[in-house]
Amino acid sequence: MKKTLKLPVGTFYIYNDYLIVEANEGETVTVESNDILVDIADTYYSGKEFVYITNRINSYSVDPAVYSKTSLITNLVGFAVVATNYISLSNAEIEKLFLSKPFESFTELEKAISWAKSIIKQNNTNIKTSDF
User: Fold this and answer.
1) Maximum CA pair distance of the chain?
2) Is residue 6 classed as helix, strand or coil in its secondary structure?
3) For residue 58, what are the domain limits?
4) Count of domains for the chain
5) Three-class SS of residue 102?
């Protein structure tokens, strides 16, 4: 892990190829709070691809309009939701409709991390083979 950021919206765990976010209990993720993600992408992932993993250990809400702005982050190559309850997983299926990036849901954080690494590896392989 590179760094942990505790911010008003939640805790951000920054790794080389992926970002894990745990939003605070009762938080509402808005388009304005999405600016934090943009800043983190610019600061920690400048010039490299990454995957966003939201670890939904707390109950919070997301304004679906967030995803149109999130989709504009060019180096974001995947989005994963980790949740263990039915409502959060059902919400993720609806949220998936608003994001124009690969989007998967998981019940275990380790599986989301494995998926994130595979997306990064696949993209790096595609870049290398397309150079020939």
Assistant:
1) 50
2) strand
3) 3-130
4) 1
5) coil
